[in-house]
Every structure is written in C-alpha cells, then in structure tokens.
User: Which sequence fits this backbone?
C-alpha cells in the first residue's frame, strides 16, 4: 500500500460504525508512537451541532496569532485528507501514506502484545495526533467524532474544552434524552481544565454539574456573551452576518462572519471565548478575531453552489430549525425570493420524521425532490415521501429519485430565477453534490 488510494481503501474497509476499542488500547498505540498527543496544546470541542464551525474558527484565530495550528475534523466531503490540516493546508498524499505506515507499525506491535486494531475513526485520529507532532504544531484543535466520553479524541489532555450545543442526534449511540446526550458530551470535561459552553436548558445543568464535580471552570457563553445589536445581514459589510459582541474581556463592534447563516453568530461567540481563554495576553487582538471570522468558510454549511442553490448538512431537528431561520432572513435581505424548493436525502438512523416536519414547517417548500443516499444507511425515497405527505398539502409537488445527482439536475431544470433550492438532510448528500 504505497499510494493514497490503496491506503484509503484499507481505512474505508474498517467499518465506520464498528465497536470502539478502549481508551487504554488507543493510549497503548500512542505510547508506541512516543505519545504524540502530548507534544502540543490541544483544544477539544464537542457538540451536536456547530462543533465543526467552532473548530475551524478557533484554528483560524490561532493561526492568525502566529501559531502553527493543526485541525482534526470529521467527516470529509470529498477527500479523506480534509480531516487533517495545518494552517489550512490539507495533509499531502505522500504524508498521509507515510503517516499511515508509521501508525500501522505501532498498531501491529500493539496487537502482538494483545491489543486490537483501531476502528475507522480511531485510526484517523491516531494518524492525526502523530502527524501534528511530527510537524511541530503549537496548537491542535480536535473535533470529536461522536459523543465525547467514549470518543477516540477523549484520550487527549487539552488546555481548554468546549461544548457547542446539545440536540437529539445519534440517539442509538448516545441516549434518547437530552440529559443522556449531554452526559456523553460532558465526558470531555477534564479536571481543572476550563470548559466553554453555549448550551442552555437542562443540558446546561448536566454540563455545569460535571464541571463542578471535576473542578473545571465553567464559562457560559450564553450568559456571559451578549449580542448588543440585532443580528443583520449586510451586503455592504461583506455579504455576511454582522453583529456586536460583548464578553467579560472585550467589546467587539461590527464583527462580520463571512456567511449568510446567522446561526454562525452563536458559533463565532463560542470561538471568541475559546480564543480569549487561550490567549489572555492577546485578548484585545481584535484584528485576529475580525480576520478569522471574515476568512471563515466551511463546506456544506449554508454553502452557495450557485446564486440560488444552498447546500447545508443539517440532519437533525435543531440544525434544521436554525437553517430555516437563516433561509428566512436571507430571503428578507435579498428581497427577490418568492418560493423555496427542497432537495432532501437522509440516513435511516436519523429521527427523520422530526427532521421532515421541521423542514416543511420552516421552509414551506413548493416542490420537494427526494433521493436515497449512496450508502447502506439510506432511507428509501418512498418512505421519506410518505412522511412528507403527512405534513404537506395535497398540491405540494413531491418527486422521488434513485440518485442524488438525478434529483439535483431535475431540480435545477425546474428552478425559477425567483426561487431558492435548499439541498439538505445529510452530510452524505453534501459529499455527493460537492463531488459533482
């Protein structure tokens, strides 16, 4: 396996949702690699929604402060290399292959001592941890894969942790109540390490009590951070969301996030508090904060594929609600959009009834295009159609397709100049459309 394709095929051959190994098994492999996870300052971020955006914003702020900053995220949309970046540059194919072989040597040595082969995500995490140390990163931002307490990334000892949001997702793995899911996310909290959170409600109480039990400072962004002005979208300010932000450290006026998704304001607030916690001596470096937010761009999150086609990976009820709010605000700002069409695909293990209901109520789509995903976890278009029909009127046009690209091309053919097409329901949908 001396090329990226054979290595990726090997990794893809490890089931993505196979049983996790133990943290002890992961630490044993890392120890054989020289404990690379201890070679830099780590930031650990969990959450149901927003963790990818907060991770990227935080890494941009650290990079603009002059630090060599690694970023580990999931999933990837087009290339597996996207998961491992340093200062915005993906790991090269050559380095990916070399890192894989180095890690595999440690895996085999661990197996000889009675250990087990890492799972799909664990393998990628170990590769990232090793690569960032080899490349002498100052900081590394780790986004959790699933949950927190049992996640592979939780073997890292960070200098700060953050929990962006709690919602009903991955219930078959994390629990079927908000409190149970919050408990799993709060598992990343470490003794004496600050935890920054934008979580509210009963989930916040779980996180707060966990922090107290572990002697970790609890930094509540939802109460300590105040949006002074109404969130606006102003094309004159760069075509994104403009807002004022007050923290206990500083007041930022006229911050601009380079996106029309106003749900990114909450994520930006969290990232700013992480940055302030990491860099108290640079807490008034407004240029760093402003520059990072203006440079922010994340694939598959309110991403414009064309002037009137928006791609978003929203796949749970909370994320869909925020997406619909952003679409409504965008329509008001633009003033030329009269109707919305929806291209939808979802995994069968999602709470798809709630997701579909939220899309119908939030977007009020005039036409709906449903496709199955190219994965074994696909929900059949016919099953999705039956759910849509529960919540839509009889005159709503609903069409089913075998392929996402077929649905997309037909939707484009029928799209009017005064309409928006929203493509959402799954990150796998984003992956397929981005690869087109």
Assistant:
């Amino acid at each position: 396996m001396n090329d990226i394709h054979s290595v990726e095929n090997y990794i893809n051959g490890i089931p993505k949702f196979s049983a996790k190994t133990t943290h002890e098994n992961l630490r044993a492999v890392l120890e054989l690699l020289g404990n690379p996870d201890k070679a830099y300052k780590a930031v650990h971020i969990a959450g149901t929604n927003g963790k990818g955006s907060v991770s990227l914003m935080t890494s941009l702020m650290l990079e603009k402060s002059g630090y060599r900053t690694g970023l580990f995220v999931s999933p990837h949309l087009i290339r597996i290399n996207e998961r491992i970046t340093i200062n915005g540059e993906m790991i090269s194919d050559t380095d990916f292959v070399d890192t894989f072989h180095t890690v595999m040597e440690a895996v085999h040595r661990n197996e000889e001592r009675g250990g087990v082969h890492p799972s799909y995500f664990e393998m990628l995490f170990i590769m990232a941890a090793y690569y960032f140390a080899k490349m002498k990163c100052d900081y590394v931002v780790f986004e959790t894969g699933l949950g927190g307490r049992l996640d592979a990334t939780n073997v890292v000892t960070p200098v700060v942790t953050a929990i962006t949001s709690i919602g009903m997702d991955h219930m078959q793995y994390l629990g079927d109540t908000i409190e149970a899911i919050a408990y799993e996310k709060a598992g990343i909290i470490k003794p004496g390490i600050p935890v920054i959170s934008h979580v509210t409600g009963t989930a916040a109480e779980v996180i707060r009590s966990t922090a107290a039990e572990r002697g970790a400072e609890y930094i509540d962004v939802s109460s300590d951070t105040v949006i002074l002005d109404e969130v606006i979208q102003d094309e004159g300010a760069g075509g994104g969301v403009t807002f004022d932000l007050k923290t206990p450290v500083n007041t930022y006026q006229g911050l601009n996030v380079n996106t029309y998704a106003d749900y990114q304001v909450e994520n930006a607030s969290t990232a700013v508090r992480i940055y302030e916690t990491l860099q108290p001596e640079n807490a008034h470096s407004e240029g760093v904060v402003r520059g990072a937010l203006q440079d922010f761009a994340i694939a598959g999150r309110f991403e414009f594929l064309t002037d009137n086609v928006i791609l978003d990976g929203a796949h749970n009820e909370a994320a869909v609600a925020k997406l619909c709010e952003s679409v409504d605000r965008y329509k008001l700002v633009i003033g030329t959009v009269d109707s919305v069409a929806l291209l939808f695909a979802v995994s069968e293990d999602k709470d798809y009834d709630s997701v579909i209901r939220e899309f119908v109520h939030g977007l009020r789509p005039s036409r709906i295009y449903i496709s199955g995903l190219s994965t074994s976890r696909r929900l059949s278009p016919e099953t999705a159609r039956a759910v849509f029909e529960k919540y839509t009127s009889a005159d709503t046009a609903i069409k089913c397709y075998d392929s996402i690209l077929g649905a997309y091309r037909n939707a484009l053919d029928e799209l009017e100049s005064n309409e928006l097409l929203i493509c959402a329901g799954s990150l796998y949908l984003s992956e397929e459309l981005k690869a087109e």
